Amino acid sequence: MSVSWADNVPVETRIKAAFLYKFCSYIRWPSEVFANSDDPVIMLILGDDVLAAELEHIVTDRLTAGSSFSVFRSVDSVELTSVQLVYMAGVELSNKHALISQLALQPIVTVTEVVNQQGPGIINFIKVDNRMRFDVFQARAQKANLSMDSQLLTVARQVIRESP
Questions:
Q1: Which has the closest alpha carbon to 67: 104, 29, 105?
Q2: Which helix (H) or strand (E) covers residue 109, if one does?
């Protein structure tokens, strides 16, 4: 009997990786983000190598809107302006704010996880009653020229419509 990759990955990590993958199906980037229709969706995962590996496992041979996926684990390994989604785990809050400030007007989905307060990202993971949920900051997405499908907003724990 063989042990699968998923058997060694915490459930919470698998859920976050699945969310990150699925988010891409419900987000529309400006057309100029992808030079070619088959350019990959580039995801940068900071501070969680296990989640990055799980995400790589999930996206293998999968497409969203005709695009494959590429997963990177370091800011040094990819040009930030070519990234479509950045997830920041275990990164100091001040560092998250600095990176998000740098990316705020770029069409990049920023995903954070900040406990007991609103995260600085467009999407923030939050654990509620032992279940992984997420909040969406719609004005931040609009400021970054991103549109989110109503299906994503419907399953969010809450949609915060702060003024831009």
A1: 29
A2: strand 109-113
